[in-house]
């Protein structure tokens, strides 16, 4: 967990104009900077970067955030990775749990990581240089329809048929200081059975006589390799082993190269091999990525969902392809959402994506993608195939197969629709499916289709409260204008206040020193009311309001919020007084409310400090 105090310090030190300017050409436009949005296609710039708020906002697609959010959105990095990259750029060390290590040990870890990264970079350059002098490798790539430009774009290389090829770059493998990082990076194999005359383990290149595919992380650093044979040989693909830099279950080949095309096309295409990714990019589908010789994992899905709201998995139509698709489905289920689309494309058994495009054309493949099977249909197909739905046993078996899949899905509209379809298919009701599959949130009720319990308090702020939230986010110092009575009424859910407003007032009270809008927004984004604050933040970014008019508007809005519950109570008691059912205490309360409402209408609400002056 990264402390919020560090995030605020970090965002005080970085300049978002510099961060965004590395990726987007910005021009000064009044108080802000303008440019073409990197997150959607546009011809006129609607993307603004505010140096005063330290925030970016696109008025075309609505993308917005701090410097941290920009790196996450642009590069697909996780929150911690984006924080680390920014911290490194300004010479800060992220205070995480691992930083509780002694300084010497922490410095050793950092040096080790740098050594591995340097080794991978130098090896990449070596393999690319070797490709230029390897006619058989060049001929193989040309035979696969690849151009020099696409090979350069993906950094393709060639590992020569040499047991000590990398010695020309790094030096003798007999030197432990040289060989150690290369073994740890997976570039060398160290044999414990075969040793040299002096007893040292025999060390030799892992990759020999193979086309080399560099695997990059979301920052563009090479963290591993995939090597492909050009003729007969096993394995066809040889991957880097698990290293401190590289984990097959968390990385995707081509994601760094495809990130812009994914946004332009609105979806990512997940295929099975490195060559498919490169060949599809050559043929006009630059939004393809591949898993690294392993099944798709939930971490893979999470990375893809950071890049786009639509994922299409492409598999062979044979039994092996169906099994791989089933594993991908299971990896996707925890991450499905009503605003996300996941589909499955099954090509004819004789084709992979590369061969299909070359034989049938890009338009035909685009139609295949468009008509790919939705996740819901694939799930229902899996649980019902090979079942005799005319018999009770077959229907019960389908429900049994569906149970773990439905349980893996978050509650929402999509799961609801699948439950209804499964109920129709198995001649049951949705409530019975939910009960059978254990989807109800309360064991005393039969699923979410039972009568819901009434909510005790209102969660969402009203329009007036939303405006108060916007003004407080813009000028947190306004919270100091609220006296005790105002806070008691505003923040009490039984009267007018929402929980989001109450939390925001407390957060404003806790600010010390100069306010950084970006840092404050990041803090609020980590709270349970992040959606409310995100909506308010968008409104704040769309207007430029000076502090003085904001103060007047804040005072007026608070006055209305304070008056509304009193007026509601007055009207309720007035009915009792008119009907003659009010006791003396109720009458006294009604008279006080009448005077108080009248006073507030005449004077308006003012902070206690102003009334005393």
Outline the structure in words:
By secondary structure, the chain is α+β, with helices and mostly antiparallel strands. Helices cover 51% and strands 12% of the residues. It has 5 domains: 4-98, Alpha-Beta Complex (DNA Primase, Chain A); 103-239, DNA primase, catalytic core, N-terminal domain (DNA primase DNAg catalytic core, N-terminal domain, Alpha-Beta Complex); 255-371, 3-Layer(aba) Sandwich (Dna Topoisomerase Vi A Subunit, Chain: A, domain 2), CATH 3.40.1360; 381-437, Up-down Bundle (Pheromone ER-1); 463-612, DNAb Helicase, Chain A, CATH 1.10.860. The chain has 27 helices and 16 strands. Strands 1-2-3-4-5 form a 5-stranded antiparallel sheet. A 5-stranded mixed sheet has the order 13-12-14-15-16. Strands 6-9-10-11 form a 4-stranded antiparallel sheet, with helices on one face. Strand 7 (188-195) and strand 8 (201-205) form a beta hairpin. Helix 1 (4-13) packs antiparallel against helix 23 (517-525). The chain is globular and about 105 Å long. Pfam families: DnaB_bind (PF10410), DnaG_DnaB_bind (PF08278), DNAG_N (PF08275), Toprim_2 (PF13155), Zn_ribbon_DnaG (PF01807).
């Amino acid at each position: 967990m990264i402390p919020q105090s560090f995030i605020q310090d970090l965002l005080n030190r970085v300049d978002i104009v510099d961060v965004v300017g590395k990726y987007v050409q910005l021009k000064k436009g009044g108080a802000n900077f303008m440019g073409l949005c990197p997150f959607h296609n546009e011809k006129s710039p609607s993307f603004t970067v505010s140096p005063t708020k330290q925030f970016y906002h696109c008025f075309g697609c609505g993308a917005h955030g701090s410097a941290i959010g920009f790196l996450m959105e642009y590069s697909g990095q996780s929150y911690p990775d984006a924080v680390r990259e920014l911290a490194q750029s300004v010479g800060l060390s992220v205070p995480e749990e691992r930083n509780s290590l002694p300084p010497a040990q922490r410095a050793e870890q950092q040096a080790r990581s740098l050594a591995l990264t340097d080794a991978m970079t130098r090896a990449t350059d070596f393999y690319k240089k070797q490709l230029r002098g390897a006619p058989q490798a060049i001929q193989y790539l040309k035979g696969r329809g690849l151009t020099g430009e696409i090979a350069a774009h993906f950094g393709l290389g060639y590992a020569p048929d040499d047991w000590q090829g990398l010695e020309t770059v790094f030096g003798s493998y007999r030197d432990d200081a040289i060989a150690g990082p290369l073994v740890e990076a997976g570039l060398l194999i160290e044999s414990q059975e075969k040793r040299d005359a002096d007893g040292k383990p025999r060390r030799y290149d892992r990759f020999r006589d193979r086309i080399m595919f560099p695997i990059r992380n979301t920052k563009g650093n090479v963290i591993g390799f995939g090597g492909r044979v050009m003729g007969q040989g096993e394995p066809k693909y040889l991957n880097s082993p698990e290293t401190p830099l590289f984990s097959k279950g968390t990385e995707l080949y081509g994601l760094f190269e495809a990130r812009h095309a994914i946004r332009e096309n609105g979806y990512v295409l997940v295929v099975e091999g490195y060559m498919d990714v490169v060949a599809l990019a050559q043929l006009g589908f630059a939004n393809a990525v591949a898993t690294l010789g392993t099944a798709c994992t939930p971490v893979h899905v999470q990375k893809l969902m950071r890049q786009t709201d639509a994922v299409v998995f492409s598999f062979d139509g044979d039994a092996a392809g169906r099994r791989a698709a089933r594993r991908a489905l299971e990896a996707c289920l925890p991450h499905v959402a009503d605003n996300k689309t996941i589909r499955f494309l099954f090509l004819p058994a004789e084709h992979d994506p590369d061969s299909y495009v070359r034989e049938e054309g890009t338009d035909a493949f685009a139609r295949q993608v468009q008509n790919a099977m939705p996740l819901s249909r694939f799930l229902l197909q899996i649980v019902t195939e090979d079942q005799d739905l005319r018999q009770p046993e077959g229907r019960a078996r389908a429900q049994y197969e569906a149970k773990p899949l439905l349980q893996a899905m978050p509650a929402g509209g999509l799961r609801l629709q699948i439950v209804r379809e499964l109920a129709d298919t198995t001649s049951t009701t949705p409530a019975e499916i939910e009960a059978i599959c254990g989807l109800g949130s309360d064991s005393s009720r039969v699923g979410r289709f039972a009568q819901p319990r009434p909510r005790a308090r209102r969660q969402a702020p009203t329009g007036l409260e939303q405006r108060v939230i916007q003004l407080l986010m813009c000028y947190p110092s306004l919270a100091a204008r609220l006296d005790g009575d105002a806070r008691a009424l505003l923040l009490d859910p039984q009267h007018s206040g929402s929980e989001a407003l109450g939390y925001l007032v407390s957060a404003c009270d806790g600010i010390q020193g100069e306010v950084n809008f970006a840092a404050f927004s990041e803090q609020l984004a980590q709270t349970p009311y992040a959606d409310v604050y995100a909506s308010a933040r968008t409104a704040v970014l769309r207007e430029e309001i000076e502090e003085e008019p904001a103060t007047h508007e804040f005072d007026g809005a608070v006055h209305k919020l304070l008056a509304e519950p009193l007026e509601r109570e007055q009207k309720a008691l007035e009915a009792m007084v008119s009907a003659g059912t009010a006791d003396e205490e109720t009458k006294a309360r009604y008279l006080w409310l009448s005077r108080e409402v009248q006073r507030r209408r005449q004077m308006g609400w003012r902070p206690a400090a102003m009334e005393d002056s």
